[in-house]
Amino acid sequence: MSGAALAALLGVSLCDAAECPRKDALGTSRVLSVDAKTFPRVGLKSFPQTLPLADREVVLTFDDGPHPPTTSKVLAALAQECVRATFFLIGQHASQYPDMVKRIAREGHTVGHHSFTHPFMGHIPFEKAIADIDRGIAADEMALHGASTTTPSTPFFRFPYFESTQALLDLLQSRGIAVFGADLWASDWEEMTPEQQLKLVTERLAASGRGIILFHDNKAQTAAMMPAFLRYLRENGYRVVHIVPAGKSQRSADTR
């Protein structure tokens, strides 16, 4: 099968390499176009299916932002290595810091959704859960585009605490919204030093070999260890894949 045919089968967007100021940077190796019809829910920590990643390919994702003091440091680390990631934003925070939301998008990252108040959705009524999801989407869209809508421009959602119900999963699937779990965690909700976190996540990545990685950009330890983690990826032959919704394309920045 040709590379183009395989790309079409997997929903991969093959992009021309974009220029990166640092020729020795990690870069973003390719852009993966994710269609909710083909991948309605992904992430092996929660679901039986994940994204079609090759060995040593990773997708970087960040939850719970924006939080300017730490999100800005994460963005700086990503920019230094010409890497693109996906940020699952809490709507309440997006409403407070719309300029940071715009910066995330302006710097080429994907903006996904993570509810409005970050509740345990398996412990609240279905109607209340949907209302919180929609309010979060609307807040993110207002911050991004100045228009409040519950139809997300990027139909990617991650449940707070990865806690969902079948009814909620079915409804989001019917609306064409892909649900993201993760393949491995940095466990940065636990207190540890940046050095301890780096050791933990690199050991987990070495064991799994690939996958969707979960970080939190509102954690100081994550912001502090991100330059070293990206350097680890570069020095150990890992490649970063940037996810975008089907129908959208963004230029990859392959600097290697």
Description:
It is a single chain. With 256 residues, the protein is α/β, with parallel strands linked by helices. The chain has helices at residues 3-10, 68-80, 91-96, 98-106, 126-145, 166-174, 194-208, 220-235; strands spanning 12-13, 30-34, 41-42, 57-63, 86-89, 110-113, 156-157, 178-180, 184-185, 211-216, 239-245. The strands form two sheets. Strands 1, 2, 4, 5, 6, 9, 10 and 11 form an eight-stranded mixed beta sheet that branches. Strands 3-8-7 form a three-stranded parallel beta sheet, covered by helices on one side. The chain has a single domain (3-15, 22-245), classed as TIM Barrel (Alpha-Beta Barrel), CATH 3.20.20.370. α2 (68-80) runs parallel beside α8 and α4 packs across α5.
